[in-house]
């Protein structure tokens, strides 16, 4: 059974990233992967504690299976942190995983589950810790025949800017 969702990735900030550049700093951005889609935050220059405060919206996410299974055990979100170089490709800095809070179309968007609270996710590079990501992820089912719900502006203080 096909279900359509919208994923909202509230990418707030990271801390304690390692220095990837000779300056002792990095130019970090995050890439969020979910099912077959990916999006990036903006690049913030010369920092180890970037505050992106960005909302990445993934529309038309199609999942197959029973609705209750998706609510209880949603797919994993992969978040990778990179250092943007002026020349060459971006350098991998670390990775973390998250599960979104799921709202089925027959549920209310209200406390205590929504809006989801920001949480810290430990970033790993191999077996070593490589900082923390402060973010929140929500997966909202779109009722059959309806267009996607749009993020509520000003609801959580995060702006609806999109990355590159």
**What would you call the structural class?**
mainly beta
**What sequence of helices (H) and strands (E) makes up the elements?**
EEEEHEEEEE
CATH level-two architecture? Sandwich
| Percentage of residues assigned to helices | under 10%
Number of domains: 1
Q: Residue ranges: pLDDT <50 for 5 or more in a row?
A: 153-164
Shape: elongated
* Assigned CATH class: Mainly Beta
Oligomer state of the chains in this structure: single chain
What does this protein structure show overall?
The protein is mainly β and 164 residues long. The chain has one domain (2-141): C2 domain (Immunoglobulin-like). It contains one helix and nine strands. The radius of gyration is 16 Å and the shape is elongated. It starts with a strand and ends in a 23-residue tail after the last strand. It is a single-pass membrane protein. Residues 144-164 are annotated as: Disordered. Residues 1-114 form the C2 domain.
Question: What's the topology here?
Answer:
Layout: E1 2-15, E2 28-34, E3 37-40, E4 51-64, H1 67-72, E5 77-83, E6 91-98, E7 101-103, E8 119-125, E9 128-141
Parallel strand pairs: 7-9
Antiparallel strand pairs: 1-4, 1-9, 2-3, 2-5, 5-6, 8-9
Biased composition (Basic and acidic residues): 150-164
GO cellular component, one term: presynaptic active zone membrane
Protein name: OTOF protein
In short:
It is found in: Membrane. With 164 residues, the protein is mainly beta.
List keywords for this structure.
single chain, 164 residues, mainly beta, Immunoglobulin-like, five-stranded mixed beta sheet, four-stranded antiparallel beta sheet, disordered C terminus, OTOF protein, membrane, AP-2 adaptor complex binding
């Amino acid at each position: 059974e096909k279900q359509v969702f919208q994923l909202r990735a509230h990418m707030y900030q990271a801390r304690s990233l390692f220095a990837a550049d000779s300056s002792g700093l990095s130019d970090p951005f995050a890439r969020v992967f979910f099912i077959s889609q990916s999006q990036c935050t903006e690049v913030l220059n010369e920092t180890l504690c970037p505050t992106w405060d960005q909302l990445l919206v993934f529309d038309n996410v199609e999942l197959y299976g029973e609705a209750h299974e998706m609510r209880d055990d949603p797919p994993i979100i992969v978040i990778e942190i990179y250092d943007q170089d002026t020349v060459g490709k971006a350098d991998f800095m670390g990775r973390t995983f998250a599960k979104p809070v799921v709202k089925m179309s027959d549920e209310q968007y209200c406390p205590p589950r929504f809006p989801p609270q920001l949480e810290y996710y430990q970033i790993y590079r191999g077996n070593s810790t490589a900082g923390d990501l402060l973010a929140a992820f929500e997966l909202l089912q779109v009722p059959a025949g309806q267009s996607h719900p749009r993020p509520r502006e000003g609801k959580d203080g995060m702006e609806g800017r999109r990355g590159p």
